[in-house]
Design a protein that fits this description.
There is one protein chain. This protein is 45% helix and 12% strand. Helix 9 links the parallel strand 3 and strand 4. Helix 2 crosses helix 3.
Length: 214
């Protein structure tokens, strides 16, 4: 779970940017999340989303393609979830309903971060503070809302809007193959790989990420 703090380090490298953070933390469904983005995003903006936010950004572009100049999806898959992933989310929500949430475990941090970042306490603190302030109810909503998300790969191939996927080579959570296949099939979809980063690209590799944005 992330808020505007996710982007602060990256924005240091693009001081000319005029960011507008689209908040969908109150939304309980995919449609509500996409609606929140469409309501808040400026016309002809460059829509940038991370992880779930990247998938939602692609959905927003599919719904209103003329609304955006381009889309960047970071550490994002256009695919749906596997049955194992769905079942894990359901189990996690059941645990959250019945027990106090104690925050991210060390095991989860190892899944999110590249090994060279596991001693970066400032970065870890940013992740933990965002998660703590958003709280377990937002986490539950964001686990359940996209549980039946559809594979939007074929739909994205119909767009002529520039779409950029930025993926980490060492991401343990999101495979690169779905985005790679799209980039090979459409002249409007590009893929950039980031080395030395785990899933949390905006925090782990902010300068590299800033350099890849159009």
């Amino acid at each position: 779970m992330c808020d505007a703090r996710l982007w602060e380090k990256m924005l240091d490298f693009i001081p000319h940017a005029r960011p507008v953070h689209c908040d969908y933390s109150d939304a309980s469904t995919i449609d509500q999340m996409v609606g929140a983005i469409l309501k808040q995003a400026p016309e002809k903006s460059h829509l940038i989303g991370f992880s779930l936010g990247g998938y939602l950004g692609c959905l927003a572009a599919l719904k209103e393609p003329k609304r955006f100049a381009c889309v960047t999806a970071i550490a994002t898959s256009p695919a749906g979830l596997t049955e194992n992933e769905k079942n894990l989310r359901r189990r996690n929500v059941d645990v959250l309903k019945n027990h106090p949430y104690k925050g991210l475990s060390k095991r989860r941090l190892r899944q999110l971060l590249h090994p060279n970042q596991l001693d970066n306490q400032e970065l870890i603190d940013t992740i933990l503070h965002m998660e703590k302030e958003l709280g377990k109810h937002v986490l539950m909503r964001q686990l359940l809302a996209p549980i039946n998300r559809r594979d939007i790969s074929k739909e994205l191939l119909q767009l002529t809007l520039p779409i950029q996927f930025i993926m980490a080579e060492d991401d343990l959570l999101v495979p690169v193959d779905p985005a790679k296949k799209l980039s090979e099939l459409s002249p409007y979809i590009t893929l950039h790989s980031v080395s030395g980063s785990g899933h949390m690209i905006p925090l782990e590799a902010p300068e590299k990420l800033a350099s890849l944005l159009p």
